[in-house]
Amino acid sequence: MDFLAALKITEKNSGVSTGNSSLPAHGELIVSHSPVDGKLIATIQAADKNDYETVIAKAQTAFLEWRTWPAPKRGEIVRQIGDALRAHKEPLGKLVSYEMGKSLQEGYGEVQEMIDICDFAVGLSRQLYGLSMHSERPAHRMYEQWHPLGIVGIISAFNFPVAVWSWNTMLAWICGNVCVWKPSEKTPLCAVACHNIIADVLKRNDVPDGINGLVIGGREVGEWLSADSRVPLVSATGSTRMGKAVGATVGARLGRALLELGGNNAIIISQHADLDIAIRGSVFGAVGTAGQRCTTTRRLIVHEAVYDTIKTKLVAAYKQLSIGDPLDENNHVGPLIDKDAVIGYQKALEACKKEGGRFIVEGGVLEGKGFESGCYVKPCIAEVDPHFNIVQQETFAPILYLMKYNTIDDAIAIQNGVPQGLSSSIMTLNLREAEQFLSANGSDCGIANVNIGTSGAEIGGAFGGEKETGGGRESGSDAWKAYMRRQTNTINYSTQLPLAQGIKFHV
Ligand code: NAD
């Protein structure tokens, strides 16, 4: 496969790197099979604890120098990385699609997201502003400035195997931090490829070796990072189960955790919606990436007046879906990541039926030619009661739950009535209900859209969610502040020492 060669992926790869070069690894052998056709792509030697220690030590040393580089100079490195990613967009996009299973268009889109965040970070490297304040004391000056934290540990999920890492890393770098990445063990080659692409840029610019640590391994590597007080910030993307564990461990040492966890996203379709947009947004949101986006549409809350029409249109739209090899651009839906995910999907279907769910588009596992990997499933739709247990949970698969509402207040209550709080939307042309949905007594999610589905965020906005989604914000807006420490400075240029609040103290 040409794209592997272009990314310098060989049969056997090391899962340990300090950035400028990969190091020998001593952990278990990870075997990466493609969910597309079940074939072996390559192997990766994972890190053991000693390898981890080597990477952390190198990162600590690199930080001492990297933090002294002016931020715009750090931005220049990120600019060159953006160019390197542009040059590798095609092979990296193909690898993302082949190792993770998302469509080729989405694979390319993910690399484009990396390029976009590089551009954003370059501009930001000249805009790490602090405020200046008026002191209550005469001849005093007060301001705040932002300094880097040190090592940022990044734990990432399989479903965005490269973009989420870059959201964190590009921002962390321009802020003056060094990064250590623990990618998902389900998509390790995507991580190796990113490191290979970037190593040349780092070496060419004499960037201190250690700013771009890579430690591939299972969840234990994530646990090492979480417990490590040399890592002031752990940014973790994955399931709520994982986030609760990471949050507790990092919290116990009073470190900082940036958590991007599971979603259970809904679209409200009002009787005032443009039904064509509503259907298209819902179908893409529900079946795109085979339902394996954190922002996947899992629930459709439909007004009773348009419920039957929506139902008919959805069933018709699902009939048009073609399932198969995601590298073939004629297909809409690719495989799930692995057979465990297929089991999770089957269990959810059973649970839904048991609770009384009625399937209007039946699910099932596909077999036969083209489906040999055993990871292809049918996107399905069930009519449910919003309070079913299964509807409260995130099943990482293309299962769409359909429910009815009567008033906009009810719809918002149903939308908010789950433990997660990532993405939400309303399809309506009615200004009043759109604004109500966006108001403080509207959606309780980190993302709330109007006439757009729940998935497909742009990098310019801060990305993340509330409640069991973890509360973290990454990417655009002022998310960069999570990667820095704020220092408040007060400077006295008078000949006196006046105390704040007018306190008198004479010696
Ligand atoms: P996962 O939780 O199984 O694994 C994510 C990462 O955490 C992996 O690298 C894994 O090795 C590591 N990990 C697992 N347990 C750990 C522990 N106890 N301590 C430290 N690290 C641990 O998730 P997944 O199956 O790879 O990804 C799917 C999940 O990720 C979904 O819930 C999805 O919604 C979520 N996700 C959220 C966002 C977001 O931005 N909110 C983005 C992508 C994915």
Detailed description of the structure:
There is one protein chain. By secondary structure, this protein is α/β, with parallel strands linked by helices. The protein has 2 domains: 2-261 and 470-487, Aldehyde Dehydrogenase, Chain A, domain 1 (3-Layer(aba) Sandwich), CATH 3.40.605.10; 265-450, Aldehyde Dehydrogenase, Chain A, domain 2. It contains 15 helices and 24 strands. It has helices at residues 2-6, 49-66, 71-87, 89-100, 104-124, 163-174, 188-204, 219-227, 240-252, 275-287, 307-319, 339-354, 389-392, 408-416, 431-438, and strands at 12-14, 16-17, 22-23, 29-33, 40-45, 132-134, 140-148, 151-155, 178-182, 212-215, 233-237, 256-260, 265-269, 297-303, 358-361, 380-383, 399-405, 420-421, 423-427, 447-450, 462-463, 466-467, 474-475, 484-492. The strands form 6 sheets. Strands 3-2-10-9-8-11-12 form a 7-stranded mixed beta sheet, sandwiched between helices. Strands 15-16-17-14-13-19-20 form a 7-stranded mixed beta sheet, sandwiched between helices. A 3-stranded mixed beta sheet has the order 1-5-4, with helices on one face. Strand 8, helix 6 and strand 9 (178-182) form a beta-alpha-beta unit. Helix 5 packs parallel to helix 6 and helix 8 packs parallel to helix 9. It is globular and about 80 Å long. Bound molecules: nicotinamide-adenine-dinucleotide. The site of nicotinamide-adenine-dinucleotide has 31 residues, from helix 8 and helix 9.
